[in-house]
Amino acid sequence: MGEDVRKMMHRHLGKVVAGAAVAATATAVMIGVTLPGSASGKEGSGGGPQGSAAEQGQASRQLPGVVEDAPEQGRTGTGRDPLTDDEMKRAQTLTGGGGFRLSSEDVKGAKGPERLSTDLAELGPDEVGAADAPRRAEVTYYDYKDDTYVTKTVDLGSGKVTGTDTQHGVQPPPNRDEVMEAARLLMDDKLGEGLKKDFKDATGKALTRPDQLTVTGFVYRAGEGNPGPASVGDCGAHRCVRLFTRVVNGPWIDTRQLVIDLSARKVAKLT
């Protein structure tokens, strides 16, 4: 009988010791976890989580954040650094002037081509890794006078235009000026009456300027699975866009079935 009692007491004592060990381990884990915000249910006087005295002392010694000015941009970049503002302006001046400007037209029909992008040109295979690799810029244009996509390459060191590539039927994404001109053409066309009516219904105001809309434009090409009447048959050779429009800070207005031919300055409906 006494032996049975001793065995029962031994098993009970083992459970108590094991349970205490588990509790101590759980407590240690909980101490090591920091709950975000006020999820712990304990907040200090500042509204944040209650920290230890050491943590509070460290926080009090931290200096307030300082917003520093961006480093001054150099006139000339180095290696494969992005083009500086000065380099971009210089490249655009060197490639967009002279006879090219006089013989070309932008999206509004004014003298000079429509500039699309200015980027650092890729290096040739024999130039990669060279310490004296040249810095060249590529400036792309769309010439509305004859619907050509023009890429001009300029050596920023010598200031010479080293290459000109002209292509027909190439239609990169439209720039901001082209999108806004497309919106203006749509507003002036009879097919834009629905856009103006929907704008009036949504705002109670008349739509008189493209900047009353938030507009995104995408290139439209005839064929390639795109349904469309004969009036959009030149799209691809011509520069055509479709618009996604919405009231500024307001609802969308569906104009997806309308195609604006920026080259011909006409609007067509797909269905």
Quick structural summary:
Helices cover 30% and strands 21% of the residues. With 271 residues, the chain is an alpha+beta fold.
List the helices and strands and how they pair.
Elements: H1 2-32, H2 53-61, H3 85-96, H4 98-103, E1 114-120, E2 136-143, E3 148-155, E4 160-167, H5 176-188, H6 193-203, E5 213-219, E6 240-247, E7 252-253, E8 258-261, E9 266-269
Antiparallel strand pairs: 1-2, 2-3, 3-4, 5-6, 6-7, 6-8, 8-9
Protein name: Tat pathway signal sequence domain protein
Keywords for this entry:
single chain; four-stranded antiparallel sheet
3D architecture notes:
The structure is a single chain. This protein is α+β, with helices and mostly antiparallel strands and 271 residues long. Helices cover 30% and strands 21% of the residues. It contains six helices and nine strands. The strands form two sheets. Strands 5, 6, 7, 8 and 9 form a five-stranded antiparallel β-sheet that branches. A four-stranded antiparallel β-sheet has the order 1-2-3-4, with helices on one face. A hairpin with a 4-residue loop joins strand 2 (136-143) and strand 3. Residues 1-60 have low confidence and may be disordered.
